[in-house]
Amino acid sequence: MLARISKLRNNGGERNLFCKYFLNYSTNLAAVQPQNHLFIGCLERSLGFSREEAISAAGKVQCSKLYKKDIDLFISYFENLGLDKTQMKTIASSDPKFLLTNVEKTLKPKIRVLEELGLSRSDLVKVIIGCRSVFGRGLDSFIRPRIEYLRQLLGSDKGVVLAIKRFPRLLDFYAETRIQANVVLLKKFGWRDEQIAKFISRNPRRVFIQKPDWVEDVLQRIENDYGIPRESPMFYYAVDVISLLGKENIERKLEILRSFGWSDADIWRMFRSLPVTFNMSVDRARKSLDFFMNELGYDSGYLASHPKLFSVSLDRRVKRRNEVLKILNERKLIKRKTSLHSIVCLPELKFVKRYLLPHKDEIPDVYGSYIEMLEDRKFEKL
User: Taking phi first (over 0 means left), then psi (-120 to 50 degrees means alpha), and beta for anything else, what does residue 95 get?
Assistant: First the structure.
């Protein structure tokens, strides 16, 4: 800082800037009360704050609250939980009052309840970073009732843990009225409790943040515009996909399919058969369509009737098995006609036992390279 002040003082054209800078710094320094110096020193020593950053953070805390607070104990406790210095510095910069929370009386009992629920240390780090406001809530008046509410809604502790990991704010989000309205709406469309629990766990934001009007719009579009009745087993999966994608993303997928000559009738026929095909990224959709239509010669009607081709990895499964199938056909090792679709749908173990093991002596290189690929992907050695 002294070097910076010296530079400013030696530059006559920047004298006013020096005066303003020095006045502001001096004012901030003067505003620091004696009991804040311990706090400032701790921020500098333990979390790598600069002097100015530490003074700024201390200014956000009432001096009386610093009395007899052991900040080092707080920092040590959170280091043991798994937070690194960068994460703690970010928290301390935005919310320095959090560092004054009583470890023994306030933090440990609440952390213990979350651990008993099933949250791991890494999960707790996510909660501390994403929803530290919950530690300011009463343990018996808010946190325990909140967990019990989520347990009843999601059906198990495992479901609650999964939802919290994906959306930590779940623990401190006032939205019971909205949640209940969305749950009632889903039940109106015939959803069972376990379907609702699974839907919420996969992406809690959809039910905890979105207004009922938004949820109803998704449900109505799938039934009325996309032609999947609510009684269909595919209705749940269609809602799951469409609620995640959004209208703009869906439109991009439609544009790609249309650019390859697909009619809307074929597009929605594929979607009704297997909604998860719309989960493909734009790049993956384009590469898959290019391979199936331009290299293999499939038309949109065939692909719409065999959507499973789009639901597996193009490079790791489709292309590899297509090469195996070509070699088997060229050497006349397959007696009956076999489609790429039929072998793509097989699990790895069944594919190897049915199409590779019987011919490993005739095509040792193909067999060996495929098994090596499986081992690289950490499949069980066959």
Answer: beta
CA distance 214 to 217: 5
Mean pLDDT for each consecutive 10-residue tract of the chain (382 residues)? 47 46 43 62 81 81 55 84 87 83 89 94 89 89 91 90 89 76 90 88 79 91 93 92 87 95 95 94 95 96 96 93 94 89 93 92 91 71 42
Closest alpha carbon to 102 in 111, 90, 91, 114: 111
Closest CA to 300 of 255, 276, 324, 269: 269
The alpha carbon of residue 291 and the mean position of all alpha carbons in its chain are separated, in whole angstroms, by 30
- The distance of Cα 292 from the centroid of its chain, to the nearest Å, equals 31
- Tell me whether residue 106 is exposed, middle or buried, using C-beta atoms within 10 angstroms of its C-beta: 0 to 12, 13 to 18, 19 or more: middle
| Spatial contact of 35 and 63, defined as CB atoms under 8 Å apart | yes
The CA distance from 369 to 318, in Å, is 15
For 262, what's the count of Cα atoms within 13 Å in the CB-facing half-sphere?
28
Q: Is the pTM of this model over 0.90?
A: no
